[in-house]
Specification:
The protein is α+β, with helices and mostly antiparallel strands and 295 residues long. The protein has ten helices and eight strands. It has an eight-stranded antiparallel sheet with strand order 2-3-4-5-1-6-8-7. Helix 2 crosses helix 3, helix 3 runs antiparallel to helix 8 and helix 8 packs across helix 10.
Length: 295
Amino acid sequence: MTITEAELASLTYGCELEYEGISQATAAKVVAETVGGTANYEGRHLSNWVVTMPDGRKWQVVSDGSLSGASAEVVTPILRITDMDILQQVVRAMRKARAKVNARTGLHVHVGAQGMTPTMIKNLVRTFYKQEELILKAAGTQPNRIARYTRKTDHAFADKICRLRTPTMDAINAAWFGHYNPHPYHYDEHRYRALNLNNLWDSKGTVEFRYHEQSLNAGKIRAAVLLDLLIVLRAKMAKASSAKSPRPYSEASAKYDFRVFLLRLGAIGSYFKNPRKHLMANLPGSAAWKDGRHD
């Protein structure tokens, strides 16, 4: 099944783009010049700058305690697939402005969860959990990030999710936090997972993917966003998703396994050609042969 741009357009998303080597003021100016908006310093939450686009949507440029020296976190407004070119233009402009990325800078992608039923959230968790090791390897997620800010899915949580025959949001909440917590603190430690569900119970109403490394390559950013959108679409469209345990990672067949995963997500055809290339670049093995060619 091929996913179409129209199906992708049904989802909303937003990104948190972390950079070093550039001040918040400079980053805000770069964003404003790129999107045709105006930049203003508000100095409220996280010493924020606000860039207002002509259509009224607002970009935030804030500080981030995990970054070092001159640094900025650029937070997009709510975007759709039709805004991808704008996002890529901002990434290219940040590279031109000599922003830097390194082991401390990450990319977080929020996908709107409006309309997602408890069964769809269950599908999402099980789909991600099953392929998590492969996804993290493909993303090149650094060990230091996995150890602190992008921890893998908790096995006990995944087990509880698998046992929910008729899931409810309250049951998922209790499984996620370890107790019923309808109003989690913004910085609750449970947020530091590769797949973060904390925002399902706040005003954002999103699922967050925190496992991406930041990049100054606009094509890689597009590929990362598309992967997360495809995973959410899979969760919404599938009748069920089976994953009682993670799929074992194999060096010999990693690239082949991930290509098959992408095809099952619907990343088929020329629209996904470049993203497939970026997403498989970090993996060993052959995309065409599961255990290598024998000739």
